[in-house]
Structure formats: C-alpha cells, structure tokens
Amino acid sequence: MSDTLDRAGIDAGLLQQLMDKVSEFGSTGDGGVDRPVLTDAHKAARDWFCGELRARGYEVLVDDIGNLFGRLELAGPGAPLVMVGSHLDSQPRGGRFDGAYGVVAALAAVESWRREAEAPACNYVIVDWMNEEGARFQPSLLGSSVYAGGLTRDFALARTDRDGLSVGAELERIGYMGSDPAPQPDLYLEIHIEGDSKMEAAGARIAPFIRHWGALKVRIEVTGEQNHTGPTPMEDRRDAVLGAAYIVAKVRELADTASDTLYTSVARLDVSPNSPNIVPGKAVLFCELRAPEPAMLEWSEAELRAALPGLAEKAAVEAEIVSVDRRPAGRFDARLVALAERAADDFGYPKMRIDTIGGHDAVAVNAVLPAIVVAVPSVGGVIHRNDEYTSPEDLVAGGDVLLDMIRRIDRAGGNLDKAAEDS
C-alpha cells in the first residue's frame, strides 16, 4: 500500500456517531451518565451494542460471567485472534467517556480496518467486560478477572450490592447470564481516557501505559453500640462512626508519609442504622491503598493493621479487617508499547509514557496474554464525574493509533514480535 494509505485514519464519523449514541444510555442530562453494571440503563446500552454488532455481521457471544463479545471472522478458522475493547458500565453519576469510548472505538477501528484490508490475516473480537468499575459490586475488574483466572466464577456470581442483590441474580434478570465459550485471543488492546492531567500539561495526545500500580481493596468493619444521640452520656458512647473517622484519618496519614509512592482513599462508608438520632452501632469502610511497588503495599497494609487496635480503643469500639482484595502491580507488554508509539509518530501525535494508577480490564488480562492500555487526554484530569471530557479531536487521535496498531499486527500475520520489529 502507499504511504498515504498506510496512515489512513479511523472512520471519525462512525466513531462520533457511536460515541453520541452510547452516551444516551443512562444520561444524567448534564454531560454525564449513570449506568452502573447490570442496571436497566446498562442493559439498554448492551442491547443497543449487540444490535450494532449483529447488523455488521459479528457473532455475538456472552460467557457465563456476563462478558459480552462480538467476533468477526475475516481470515478464516485458525487465524490469529486480536481482542479490542473496554467496558460499558459506569460509575454512579460518572462520565460518558470512561470505558464506553474504548468499546465504541474498538468497533470503529475494526470496521475501518475491515474496509481497508485486502487480505486480512487476523480475526477480531470486540469485548465489553462485565463490572469493570466495581461501583455496585466489589471488587472491580470482576468479569475480566474471572476470564483471566484471577477470581472464580462462583465468587463473582455471589457478590452482592447494598440491597443484597447478587451478580448472578442480576445477570439472569437483565438477560446476560450467558453460556458461550469465551474467545481465546492472542493479544488485547484497550484505548481509554487518561483520568489525570499529566498528558494535558505535557501537550501529549497519546500515552501508552507502561506500568499498572498494585492495589489493596480493604474492607474494615467497626462495631460499636447503638444508642440515642440525646440522653446517652458522652463517656458511655461507643460510636462506630467516630472509630471510622480515626481510621479514615490514618489511611490519609499513610499517603502523606509516603508522598507520590502511595495513594489512599476511603471513598465509601456504610453506616448502620444510619439515623440522625442514633449513635451508630456499625460502620463499614471501603479503603484503597495503591502503589507501584509491592514493598510499599506491604508496608501500608502492615501499618494499617498495627494501628487499628489503638484507633478503635480511642472510640471504645472494635475494628476488624474482614476482607482484602489484592491486585498486583505489573508492566504492560513492551512490544505493544512500541507499536503504540510508532503509530503516534506516524500520525504526528505528541506522545509520552505514563503509569496507570487506576485499574483497567487490561490489568487483569495482562496476567494471561499480551495486553496494553493506550490513553488520550482528559481535560482538567477529570474522571468519574459528569464533566469528564475528551475532545473529539483527541478521541479520533486515539482511534487512529488503535487502528494503526491493528493494521501493523495484521500485516505481521498476528506475530507480535515481527510487528514490533517492523515498527
């Protein structure tokens, strides 16, 4: 092919059309979406996407943990299989680009390559992973972790939300408890918004993630004694929320002690009975500890465990760590990093390398096959909020790079080593 065709970009019109449509599902009317996993809004988005896949001749598959796949045979049986995608579920009152961009860009990129390729050497599968966000059911990356063998299916199906509804029951309710064998690709590509302001500050438009930070998701139960907020003497109160407050402050103190190498949060607190006139008898904290190195995570967990008894004693309560979900740190495939950078160079897009502190399905998949996440800028670094925004031009730039990675992999016959060498 000519040099011009080598650098042909993604079908920008199709990408924008798909992006606009998917943003309607769960729209909050202020630029954001409210589409937590396995809700009616999530089902509607999936139903629409299945229709888009089927209309273009993809075989739609749903595995037994609710991951959704669209398979396209371009090269016949036995050809290498390239997987591309992300997730359609969102945070409550979250942004419209997080996850959904990666799914619709995957379809637009594969369709663009399909029209361009004269003799494709690879087959393709587009994926929408189940419960990437972990907002309704914990832990996050649930569907991709089961797919990669990091979690068992039984464990995942038994996860419940605040109302006691299980993943299994909700998959059945919305019609996405499948039984199809999951495709077994040779590699996985994911395009995503950055969710930070580093790219914007540096003037970069493309950034392959090099490392993914590790994370500990720690659930702590604080048990006090329910009582009246009026007549109960202060010295007799066993206030679970007071104990929780001491723990929240300690979790932040850990991050302040290890500046830039440890990120921490307590972003959810479930209080019982949650009445303004009752001293809380119980509080459940959802803590996160994130770091790029295992030693830092080990240190932070040990410090938190050692501090709990004293913090609980200050509030005359009891505190116990009841579960820890562990996600190890790691590196994405260097060959895919090189492919992304070469594609950016060919289109003249300024690039940089960064880490991802947040989780992505590629983190789970990376344990079993070559995978990568490539980022485009988030305006102001905003993510998980209604005003999350990436410009149409940057969405297209990410799509161009994704298409070019697909193009190079296909021309190398699916041989990633060859594709990287040629880049």
TrEMBL record:
Binds 2 Zn(2+) ions per subunit. Pfam families: Peptidase_M20. Zn(2+) 1 binds at residues 87, 98, 192. Its cofactor is Zn(2+). InterPro entries: Amidase_Cbmase, Bact_exopeptidase_dim_dom, Peptidase_M20. Gene3D superfamilies: 3.30.70.360, Zn peptidases. Belongs to the peptidase M20 family. This is Acetylornithine deacetylase/Succinyl-diaminopimelate desuccinylase. Keywords: Hydrolase, Metal-binding, Zinc. GO terms for molecular function: hydrolase activity, acting on carbon-nitrogen (but not peptide) bonds, in linear amidines; metal ion binding. It comes from Salipiger mucosus DSM 16094. Zn(2+) 2 binds at residues 98, 133, 384.
